[in-house]
Design goal:
The structure is a single chain. The protein contains five helices and two strands; from the N terminus they run H-H-H-H-E-E-H. Helix content is 59%, strand content 4%. Helix 1 packs parallel to helix 5. A two-stranded antiparallel ribbon has the order 1-2. It is mainly α and 170 residues long. The chain has one domain: dinb family like domain (Four Helix Bundle (Hemerythrin (Met), subunit A), Up-down Bundle), CATH 1.20.120.
């Protein structure tokens, strides 16, 4: 079981990482973002699109609604500014979750309705919250690996080093 404090910490961490990542991606420009880098979803842009697509689906599940079925590799936000706006909106939702999602709400059982599953599983809502954070961290790592291969130092990714976290003095 996770707590609202966990959600708040992971939302703050994710926002920090997303802010860094999108800033760097702004700097490298469209051609480099869209270049096929042999990532699972090809380009950096397509990988970031996939993260937002899955986040949207999981956030829909959390509300108890089955998301629309679309391929997980579909380019939903081909426009960079639209993708950035979506990312910011999702970060806002997750940040609000740290204060709005209670332990009781996180513990509620949900049915993972899906046309892909004949026998949909039931599990606590918090499992999908953890999956959301884990999934985006996994794919952000692919993007930071691509940036590293481009000779770009992405910087710190460790939770205790998040600015404003207060884990280290000074």
């Amino acid at each position: 079981m996770i707590t609202p404090g966990y959600v708040a910490e992971m939302a703050a961490y994710s926002r920090w990482q997303n802010d860094n990542l999108y800033r760097i991606c702004d700097e490298i420009g469209q051609v480099e973002r869209e270049r096929d880098r042999d990532l699972f979803f090809g380009s950096i842009h397509h990988t970031l699109n996939h993260i937002c697509l899955v986040n949207r689906s999981i956030l829909t599940y959390l509300d108890g609604t089955m998301p629309a079925r679309i391929p997980l590799d579909q380019m939903v936000w081909p426009d960079w500014d639209d993708l950035k706006a979506t990312r910011l909106m999702q970060d806002d939702i997750l940040s609000a979750g740290g204060s709005d999602w209670t332990e009781a709400w996180l513990a509620e059982e949900i049915v993972m309705q899906s046309p892909r599953l004949d026998d949909p599983p039931t599990f606590p809502r918090w499992v999908m919250v953890v999956q959301l954070f884990n999934h985006q961290t996994h794919h952000r790592s692919q993007v930071t690996g691509a940036l590293h291969a481009m000779g770009i130092d992405y910087g710190a990714t460790d939770i205790p080093w998040r600015p404003g976290a207060g884990y280290f003095a000074g």
